[in-house]
Amino acid sequence: MTKILISADMEGATGVTWPADVLPGTPQWERCRPMFTSDVNAAIAGFLDGGADEVLVNEAHWTMRNLLLEKLDDRAQMLTGRHKSLSMVEGVQHGDVDGIAFVGYHTGAGAEGVLAHTYLANSLTGVWLDGERASEGRLNAAVVAEYGVPVVLVTGDDRTCDDARGYAPAARGVAVKDYVSRYAAVCRTPARTAADIRAAAKEAVALAVRHEPTGPRPRTVEIEFDAEHLAGAATVVPGVEQTGERRVAYTSPSMYEGIRTFKAVTTVVSAAVEEQYG
């Protein structure tokens, strides 16, 4: 039995280039939801073409209620909704996942890439994991490695595929658009990206082989903000220390704890952002 988990984010989906494209409730978000669902369906079909027995999709964007369940390939199941223990990679911790796909991913805060950010749309200007600049992809790859699960497929813009080579060099990558600016890209059509994703997912099944879990070990996360008061606000989270005017850092005993602390920091910081001045 081969089980694939798809972590589905939206900023890296086909056709998405603008904040309104991913902001729940906007007309543009409604327009982009079918293209997002198409990307995920292509991955599902490809994994099943390649011999996977089970596919679970974990909704990973914002409210985590964006994919169209009624349009989803009915051979898969979907985990939807917020407040999950491992957030974007929820489900990997149960010991039955053989490989994970990052579909619709994007680059991290401070990097080139369409809608580049890390968890918060703004406020964070950089995140580092053990000294290496970290996107959501790198953070999540470190989490799943603790459970022995390889990243087998990454889709997003071309910069996202470049980023993935740093944390999952063996994974298949599919660029659904080419970066022009944070809010512009040369986009491929949904029909073309679906074909590309399906073909790559079919190949990626061969990579879905659980490896020896890396196991818990201390991990250090550094976060830089665009305003000094946000660094101060973040220090209310236990273990988080201010290391510079706009920087904080913390060390966790495992990546499991590290990502949970990161979620706590971003939650606190988002509440400290004022409407006019940030």
From TrEMBL:
Keyword Zinc: yes
Residues annotated for Zn(2+) 2 binding in this entry: 9, 61, 106, 136
InterPro entries: DppA_N, Peptidase_M55, Peptidase_M55_sf
GO terms, molecular function: metal ion binding
Alphabetized Pfam families for the sequence: Peptidase_M55
Catalytic site: 117 (nucleophile)
Entry-linked CDD domains: DAP_dppA_1
Keyword tags: Metal-binding, Zinc
Positions of Zn(2+) 1 binding: 9, 11
Superkingdom of origin organism: Bacteria
Protein name: D-amino peptidase
Organism, scientific name: Streptomyces radiopugnans
Lineage: Bacteria, Bacillati, Actinomycetota, Actinomycetes, Kitasatosporales
